[in-house]
């Protein structure tokens, strides 16, 4: 029997009686990172990287049973060595290495191989079996150096501020938002954060992460205005769902942009209702996925979560690997 | 730094290169399987968009002079030399410029004649004024094969129709058409065709025999006839269902062949991105 199998509850190591990012309630859940499509509520016991502890408790409750470990540290579970390595996706994200009697599996979780200056940088881990995500596994997805993207973002913000117009930038509350915050040019104006992002910010700051000054808008934008803040030249960072609430209304005539890997494909000018799209992702693009597979030295590759058929076929036909598809039973659009 | 947009004004491809051939060339040059490009096309929405993106970040740089010289030598090159040259040019460009260069090669992008001959980006020879003019180009001319969808009778004393032509959306198996371009055909009071279409009188006769359902002031016709149109001043428009509009449309020929109606995306591929659009790779 393989060391790791895929069950209706998710990836499972029977020898260790351990699930990785399980879909429903199990006894022992190793969570690769704190995004909601990987860290689900209701598990009896959680295991995660130490940088994910605060966010997991914020999202799943302070009373969850949780054990943490650092990168490179190992714990033994019924003879299985379990080790976490940086995945470079978001703060606290980890690849999982499982080793038993000479057989090594690595489950990447979500990852990117290029460092972003915020999360600990991805490292390659040698293995026999690699389980890789494939969110952006098409060659049309090839990211640019992030500095170019942040230059564009800051130029866009500067232009809006010069016109006396607030800027709104959409980004998920864990990872993407903090990555954006870290590289915004504060000489342009103040950076204001939606409550969901502020909460993540505080937890990560207490864990030692630093992404520059920001203003908390948990109490609402109208409260900031009433308090004397001039928001016209500000940049507001909020999750996409904030646009569907009255929270955004006090901003008035704002310019709106989205930061996402999906912005690479414009569909001939359709940016999904925003004024501008910036191509910025916390997932591996096509070259990074291939790099990760090669660097792992794995002979067997199991592809999940995204364009899995495409990547597995490419690995089989072009790279000569034994690759297959592991269907995610409850596929959800990945948080970025 | 993002590169300056390339100035295509006045450039004319020496020979039409089909998108299928461009796909094959890039597949060979990149060592990328054709099926993978097809998968990319399915998600990107058009082959042009997919090819522009799979090339990744720009590498190297070529001048406008290099392109002019390549076009001049084109006829004397082997297929392999043409492929290598096209690959080098495309790789050097930003994504948007790749889209437009492929449309130029493909014969779908007709560069403006009014500013023809204006020097463009050419290394040190490029001036700031020329770059600015190139940046400000908001409309293009395109040639398309469009299907006749509706007609609107015009006038009482003359036989004239305003024709609405449509382009394709979706894949072949689920073809639908969206009305995009309008043009007028008809005769003067003496019954003489006046819009320069060779078989204009035959077309008027065909319309008269194939009028369909009345929808307000317009009449449907049997959706079967395809025409080559030359459209000038094509630009983005949020008020039009197709996403773009044209200032002038001329019916060049009646193809009498229902195959090969152009896709909406083929016109969109030719259009420069609006100024407030970003493209980071």
Describe this structure in words.
The complex is a heterodimer of chains A (336) and B (281). Chain A has 336 residues and is an alpha/beta fold. Chain A has 2 domains: 179 residues, Metallo-beta-lactamase, Chain A (4-Layer Sandwich), CATH 3.60.15.10; 133 residues, Rossmann fold (3-Layer(aba) Sandwich), CATH 3.40.50. In chain A, 21% of the residues lie in helices and 25% in strands. Chain A is built from 7 helices and 19 strands. The two termini of chain A are 34 Å apart. The C terminus of chain A is likely disordered. Chain B folds into 2 domains: 119 residues, no CATH class; 129 residues, Beta Barrel (OB fold (Dihydrolipoamide Acetyltransferase, E2P)), CATH 2.40.50. The chains are: A alpha/beta (336), B alpha+beta (281).
Helical residue percent band of chain A = 10-25%
* Biggest contact: A-B, 35 and 34 residues
How many DSSP-defined strands of chain B? Answer: 9
The backbone outline of chain A, from C-alpha atoms, is globular
Please identify the oligomeric state: heterodimer
Q: Label the CATH architecture of the largest domain in chain A.
A: 4-Layer Sandwich
Number of beta strands of chain A: 19
Rg of chain B (C-alpha, Å): 21 Å
Largest sheet of chain A: 7 strands, mixed
- Output the CATH topology of the largest domain in chain A: Metallo-beta-lactamase, Chain A
**Overall body shape of chain B:** elongated
The percentage of residues in β strands of chain B lies in: 15-25%
Major sheet summary line of chain B = 9 strands, antiparallel
Number of helices of chain A: 7
DSSP strand content of chain A: 15-25%
CATH homolog superfamily of the largest domain in chain B: Nucleic acid-binding proteins
Binned, the helix content of chain B reads 25-40%
SS class of chain B: alpha+beta
């Amino acid at each position: 029997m393989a060391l790791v199998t895929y069950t209706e509850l998710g990836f499972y190591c029977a020898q260790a009686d351990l699930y990785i990012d399980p879909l429903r309630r199990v006894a022992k859940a190793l969570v690769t990172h704190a995004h909601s499509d990987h860290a689900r509520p209701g598990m009896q016991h959680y295991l995660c990287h130490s940088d994910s502890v605060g966010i997991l408790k914020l999202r799943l409750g302070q009373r969850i049973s949780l054990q943490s470990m650092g990168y490179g540290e190992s714990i033994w579970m019924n003879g299985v060595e379990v080790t976490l390595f940086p995945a470079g996706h978001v703060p606290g994200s980890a690849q999982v290495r499982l080793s038993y009697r000479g057989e090594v599996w690595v489950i990447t979780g979500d990852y990117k191989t290029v460092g972003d200056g915020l999360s600990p940088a991805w490292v390659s881990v040698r293995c026999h079996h690699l389980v890789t995500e494939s969110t952006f596994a098409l060659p049309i997805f090839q990211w640019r150096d992030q500095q170019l993207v942040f230059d564009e973002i800051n130029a866009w913000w500067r232009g809006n501020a010069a016109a006396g117009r607030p800027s709104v930038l959409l980004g998920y509350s864990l990872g993407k938002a903090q990555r954006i915050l870290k590289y915004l040019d504060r000489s342009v104006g103040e950076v204001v954060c939606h409550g969901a992002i502020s909460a993540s910010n505080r937890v990560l700051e207490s864990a030692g992460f630093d992404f520059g000054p920001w203003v908390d808008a948990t109490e609402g934008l109208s409260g900031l205005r009433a308090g004397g803040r001039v928001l016209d030249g500000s940049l507001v960072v909020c999750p996409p769902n904030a646009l569907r609430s009255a929270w955004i209304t006090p901003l008035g005539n704002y310019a709106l942009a989205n930061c996402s890997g999906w912005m690479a494909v414009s569909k001939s000018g359709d940016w999904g209702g925003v004024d501008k799209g910036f191509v910025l992702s916390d997932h591996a693009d096509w070259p990074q996925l291939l790099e990760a597979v090669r660097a792992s030295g794995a002979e067997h590759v199991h592809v999940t979560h995204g364009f899995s058929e495409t990547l597995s076929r490419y690995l089989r036909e072009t790279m000569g690997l034994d690759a297959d598809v592991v269907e995610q039973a409850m596929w959800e659009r990945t948080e970025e | 730094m993002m590169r300056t947009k390339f100035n295509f004004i006045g450039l004319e491809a020496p020979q039409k290169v089909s998108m299928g051939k461009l796909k094959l060339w890039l597949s060979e040059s990149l060592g990328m399987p054709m099926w993978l490009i097809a998968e990319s096309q399915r998600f990107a929405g058009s082959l042009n968009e997919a090819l522009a993106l799979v090339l990744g970040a720009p590498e190297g740089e070529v001048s406008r002079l290099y392109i002019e010289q390549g076009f001049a030598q084109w006829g004397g090159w082997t297929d392999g030399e043409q492929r290598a040259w096209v690959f080098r040019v495309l790789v050097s460009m930003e994504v948007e410029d790749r889209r437009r260069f492929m449309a130029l090669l493909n014969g779908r992008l007709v560069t403006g004649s009014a500013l023809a001959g204006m020097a463009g980006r050419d290394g040190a020879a490029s001036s700031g004024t020329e770059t600015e003019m190139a940046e400000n180009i908001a409309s293009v001319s395109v040639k398309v094969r469009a299907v006749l969808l509706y007609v609107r009778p015009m006038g009482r004393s003359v036989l004239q129709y305003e024709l609405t032509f449509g382009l394709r959306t979706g894949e072949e198996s689920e073809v639908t058409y969206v009305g995009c371009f309008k043009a007028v055909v008809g005769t003067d009071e003496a019954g003489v065709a006046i819009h320069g279409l060779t078989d204009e009188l035959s077309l008027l006769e065909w319309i008269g025999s194939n009028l369909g359902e009345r929808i307000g002031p317009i009449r449907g016709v049997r959706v079967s006839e395809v025409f080559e149109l030359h459209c000038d001043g094509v630009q983005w428009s949020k008020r039009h269902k197709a996403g773009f509009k044209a200032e002038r449309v001329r019916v060049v020929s009646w193809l009498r062949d229902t195959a090969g109606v152009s896709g909406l995306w083929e016109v969109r591929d030719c259009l420069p991105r609006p100024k407030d659009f970003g493209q980071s790779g």
